[in-house]
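Second opinion, please. Please look over this fold, written as tokens:

===
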Amino acid sequence: MTSYPSVAADLALDRPGFTLPRDLYVGEDAYRFDSQVMLKSVWLYACTVAHVKKPGDFYVFELGNNSVMIIRGKDGEVRAFYNTCTHRGARICGTATGNAPRLTCPYHYWSFNLDGRLLAARDMPEGFDKSAHGLRPVALENAGGLLFVCLSENPPPFDRAGQDIAEQIGIYNLDKLKVAYVEELIDHANWKLVMENNRECYHCEGNHPELLKSLDGTGFGKGLPEDNQSGEMTGDELAIEAQRAEWEKLGIYRELIEFPDGWWHRVARLGLASGTVTQTLDGQPACRKLIWPHGDKVETSLSIWTQPNSWHHFCCDHVVTFSLVPLGADKTMLRTSWLVHEDAVEGEDYDVDNLTAVWRATNAQDGRLAENNHAGIRSDAYRPGMYSNEEKLVEAFKSFYVKTAKAALGME
């Protein structure tokens, strides 16, 4: 018998083509299940290699009661460990980011090497074996510079997603980028609603004026030839085909990858609005030092979506990465990072306000939409609603959640 019977009962009520039952969005049991069981069984995007650029750099990723340190060692390797001292369990890193020559617990000053080995433990009994008390590792994988962690003892496969993502983001060379700005935004809404809002642009026209200066919503569940419902190519779809021919000449086009064979990743090269080459208010580069080899005249960006907690946009001059984690049944932390060329100088090559303007505005707008959605779902009047044709990526996320949750509960 499952230890989350109410969650299992609600999962059993799920219907294809419809949103989830109410308590899977707003219930406390569902939040505990998500943060303590379901999300621990999958690969979660945590940060990029640019967040841990130098030896000693660390980045802390948290999920529920678990805290993970992602650290670049003196040998250049990036590793992940639980942020828990192997003496009496105190947390080691007390800040979200930083740099340290070694990791020292602030409680009793046990000291660990950056590769996790215990270096010093004062006044321990005779026969104490330091080699048996190193930091506990966490599974970590690198997809072309995007770092993913899994808190399961038996992580699911990573290879296909890692290869598909790395192949297409390689031209942006994340190892040569730096973090220009990070925004942490608290949305008072369930994490699944924040994710679902991201997975469609059905809401964009009336809500995202800044975003639509460079994006027209094409590729976010509608507008691509692959999304065609009628079978006859529209004028817009013919234009997209012409763009793809140009991208093929540059060697940057690959066919759409959309959660293939039950995998958890989507990779799409998309067009931008006419006359724009990046995701800024004027559509022009926010950073003078470009991060790819094809100049600033190509109207395209690359987008990556991963289930269940991230999305990423790669432009000619910068990268924007997004990750979220649940903080409560009605609270989600969205962390957004803007990356630029490592040699770019703030105030000379880029202005942070200009660099971040589009997505800071969009994040705030999306937060309000998700909060309003959450408030409405709490009503006794809520019933699962039918998805539109443009919301196929929302259903893809929901289906991933349901399948993974059922597996975690032994229902499949």
About this structure: The CA atoms of residues 42 and 150 lie 6 Å apart. The first strand starts at residue 44 and ends at 48. The mean pLDDT is 96. DSSP finds eight helices and 17 strands in the chain.
